[in-house]
Amino acid sequence: MPERRQHHISSAVIATKPGALDSVLAALAGFDNVEVHGCDKGKIVVVIEGPSTGVLGDTLMRISVLDGVIAANMVFEHVELEEDEVHGQRTDAA
Question: Where in the cell is it found (predicted)?
């Protein structure tokens, strides 16, 4: 039976201290699996991707301890299951 790989995608909202928005955005640019999707009035919306819920949680924890961050909260998580291909065709197709 083919191995099912998982890919986790999460959105999060980060609240920053007054005047810290730019420094937090600069720090987030250094995260490989984090993409900023918007920011306004001290809040930042990001998407975090990884192979497991644990990786997402670890990333969110690393964000929450950045200088200038008040809070970092996961809003949504989605899991994609991918199966191996056999002879060039996906094995999870109906």
Answer: Cytoplasm
Angle at alpha carbon of residue 83, lines to 81 and 89, rounded to 5°: 135
- For residue 85, give the CATH number of its domain: 3.30.70.920
Q: Considering its fold, how many domains does the chain have in total? A: 1
Pairing of strands 34-40, 43-50: antiparallel
How does residue 94 score in pLDDT terms, banded at 50, 70 and 90?
very low
pLDDT (0 to 100) of residue 4: 74
Q: How far apart are CA 1 and CA 24, in angstroms?
A: 45
Residue 43 pLDDT more than 90? yes
At residue 87, the pLDDT reads 54
Domain housing 34: 4-90
Backbone angles phi, psi at 58, to 5 degrees: -60, -45
Bridge partners of residue 44, in order along the sequence: 14, 39
